[in-house]
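FAQ: What does the model actually see?

It sees only this:
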Amino acid sequence: METKITTKKELDYVFTVRDVSVSYGDFTAVKNVSMDMFKNNITAFIGPSGCGKSTLIRSFNRMNDLIPNAAVNGEINYQGINLYDKEVDPVQVRRRIGMVFQKPNPFPKSIRENITFGLKVNNMTDNLDDRVEKALTQAALWDEVKNDLDKNALDLSGGQQQRLCIARTIAVEPDTILMDEPCSALDPVATKKIEDLMQILVKDFSILIVTHNMQQASRVSNYCAFFTTKATDDGRRTGELVEYSDTKTMFTNPSESLTEEYISGRFG
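And it is asked to produce this:
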């Protein structure tokens, strides 16, 4: 991606989002979102199903480009660069902004090959063994698998598979990690390991996480954005941002009554 001059204030943000709407054909999934997300912090997106959380987070690394009828309007700046500028290469965007999905999706290859695949695609083939060790160490998995790197990744436990997917993501040295419900398929023990890992990774990466788990959002995030759905004229529902603030304020003194009702479990 091309570089451009930014102000000091802009450099504090990993994303600045202005009036962003995402549509699929004639259906607007989420509309008119504006927010600034800080570098080296964990930002959580919460809200009921269908409010556009996953749709929005996937627009941050242009994964919605892969859906034929999807359209993103508005402006998403990543460290001062408009991600949807025609000069920006979406492949480079996805290297710089990695994604971890809801269900662990390791390749049906060895642990080592899972890590080296992206490295080879990105021509990062120097010191492959060191890069594999570094990624697995950063993902808190190295000590568990260092003697079994040729083992099929599908033989790992669910929690180990998800940490392997995180290692695969960070091996190509992104700046930011997007996590879409990364613990929803895991048991409580594996979930705690992922949450603990996030607290370590945020020292080196900016992290955005979509979660339905209010307790998880309150535990792991520094900032929190609450979305809900509103009925449209044609009877469908579109997602809107209700409130965005630091997590402590969001969970103890939200400014919107709708936020308080959702967090307290009175709806959603």
